[in-house]
């Protein structure tokens, strides 16, 4: 006997959820059910009300600040659920009215018609490691701003250090400064303490990452990614936690597009116009890959650091690492000789580096199979 399918659209907010329901029939009208509390108890009560004997429910809601708690709850109860990226939802250009009710109705209508696709949902373990890496990135930004404020204060009052900033000598120089007014001495010390506190926090959370990675299910991938030049523990862990399972990318080009590292294009007829990279998708991975790309400015060679990171890895992974070095280092020199800007070259290097990471990921999967 064929089960009746009901599509349920949820417009999720912190305190409320607007609900819309559609039957599995193109001619059937989508109806707004109403507003419920955002708690899981209220959601469970909704399921009991709308579910009839022999029916099947399929839920959909937009990805947002409320995370994946609803998705994990519904799937644990045996219901199908899709989480859709807001940027991928088609919207009419002439529509100037937006309400939560309309959003829920529009979402479930598009979901029933197959016009929207679900995003990848990370496992709870992957999400926990991703939160840890993003926390480190936030602290790094705080440290950068704290140091900027300190240097700006010193510049305003004529204090100039001739050596390199943030070395041991620089810290000793800061400790010996004596502004004219007592108030300025207090300000100086507060800025120094704020910068040092961020540095200490960054060190602590990096140590926690180093301690937790070996216990992670993706630890073999993190170790394998580090075979590549420029891919340190932080870069490898960021890639593994942000991307998760790479099986959803059939080829490296799909991964490049997901990371927003492919050129944008606006072509029509015989005119072909390509612009800067699209910058869509995951910006965290894109940033660390660009940072890693700068290491390919130098000539290709196996340093002691790289050799240590490759201990215990298969020969196939080591061969991919060396192939990446020889190709990307030569590509940098070739593009630089053509007069390309360094930023453009490094972006191209980061794009190809993601392809080598994809290849290593496949090698690890075959090893673990």
Summarize the structure.
With 369 residues, the protein is α/β, with parallel strands linked by helices. The protein is built from 13 helices and seven strands. Helix 4 (124-156) crosses helix 8.
Can you walk me through this structure?
With 369 residues, this protein is α/β, with parallel strands linked by helices. The protein has 3 domains: 4-113, Nucleotidyltransferase, domain 5; 124-215; 219-368, no CATH class. The chain contains 13 helices and 7 strands. It has helices spanning 40-50, 69-76, 100-113, 124-156, 168-175, 182-212, 219-225, 233-243, 252-258, 283-293, 304-309, 315-337, 342-368; strands at 4-12, 16-23, 31-37, 55-62, 80-84, 263-265, 274-277. The strands form 2 sheets. Strands 3-2-1-4-5 form a 5-stranded mixed sheet. A two-stranded antiparallel ribbon has the order 6-7. Helix 4 packs antiparallel against helix 6 (182-212), helix 4 (124-156) packs across helix 8 and helix 7 (219-225) packs across helix 13 (342-368). The longest helix is centred in the middle third of the chain and has 33 residues, at 124-156. The chain is globular, with a radius of gyration of 26 Å. The protein starts with a strand and ends with a helix.
